[in-house]
Input
Amino acid sequence: MTDLTTDTLIIGCGIAGAAAALRLSDDPNHHVTVITRASDATYSNSSWAQGGIVTRGLDDSPELLVEDVLRAGAGLSLPRAARLLAEEGPRLVREVLIERCGVRFDRDPGGELVYGLEAAHSVRRIVHVGDKTGEAIVRGLLDTLAERPNVSLLKHHTAVDLITFPHHSPDPLDVYEPEACHGAYVLDRDSSEIFRVVARHTVLATGGLGQAFKHTTNPPGSRGDGLAMAWRANVRVINSEYVQFHPTAISVQGAPNVLVSEAVRGEGAVLLSPDGEPFMHKYSPEWKELAPRDVVARAIHMEMLEKGYHHVHLDIASVRPTQFIRDRFPALVENCMRFGIDPTREPIPVVPAAHYFCGGVLVDDWGRTNFDGLYAVGEVSCTGLHGANRLASTSLLEGLVWGDRAARHILTSTRQSIPFDRVPAWLHLGDLIPDPALVEGDLTTIRNIMWHYVGLIRTEERLSRADRELRHLFHEIEGFYRTARLNDAMIGLRNLIQVARIITFSARRNRNSRGTHYRADAPPVDLPVGTLIAR
Output
């Protein structure tokens, strides 16, 4: 692949990146380049979202949704961001997803949308496509984008680093200029060549970082690539201690931790100990199974720790008829049956797993970062919406809203590209072929450290040990990186160790418990607490 120029470079094509590309494509003179490291463009965190997307329910209002978001965020959600989501989101679901992209959300026999209920929502307001909502949304967006001649999609390409000034500038006087982004260095995974993409605007839409933990509901590509690239460039990153653990992932020996959607509990499923006893009333008498995710995840974790369980059970079979389960949750039935479990007849063994990153690259109401020309949307960003604990099914809507807003802002910009001769070509540092055994061994070590020391329950002792071990591993991996011929696995390993250190640093620095950041050695707090990282 040769170097190229574009008006806007979008790194990632989940709902946030695709929504931005779609809005930008409305200007036929604006060229958009979208890259994804996957060979199948639909393969993203967004596609794995099962439960649904928030819109406005029948007995709902923007004010009610704002209240629910702020309550779930444990005092750290930004009210302005919540209002933006509540006011603009439902309109975009209708205009973009339903009318433009033809997403066929589930409807009743009369043709009206069916609204689901999920944890910490006060009314039914989640629309869904069975339990494959994310996949249906992403396919609808990508199919629509495929018809736009001014959108280029580069599959099997991995972003290596952002092109930022003054860091990459050959002119020493640029140190006095405002920090800016001018595109990215990109690896063509087929040719193994790294080339320059110079862009007037760059949008990070790389998703989450669940692969930093031993147990996660995220796909293998969720390595925190965008967060690590931003951190290396000195882009502002905040609230990184707030990693949401999903309470329910299938737990079968030798099988991946496949998500069991929040919507299953929304439809009445009950959490039971392995001997059949309910326990959520002990941890949340008011909400029980519909308590915020951090409460439910810790409740399961505590039951497992205190009583030596390997998992707990989630029972939908006893509360819903077989046909309802098959119709409402076809992916759940399919996934469970792959592992020898029939959810229409028996409880599902489940454990908590790393699920969603509530912090990220700090952005404003338009998705702008502190670097001129750089935007971030979706899970890699921190709009302030999720605070210390995300409200269920708001993530897809946040990606849609801020993807659309970032694109609208870009379309008003008169910023120009810089010439290629101002951007140095990628410097190859080494030619050693990365040993897959070393890469996999380091990945396993990172995930185990993060799960045991920086997981659901944290203490100073655990965090300080994680800090020491990750610091040593970081230097080993940096040396490895600088002598190797880069491939996707090596890039991912470097990003993951940096992401692990960011989370650990933030968690250690914040000595108060709030939302998903639970410290057993510190009391909970009521005042907003945030953590800022600038490398």
Remarks:
- The radius of gyration is 22 Å.
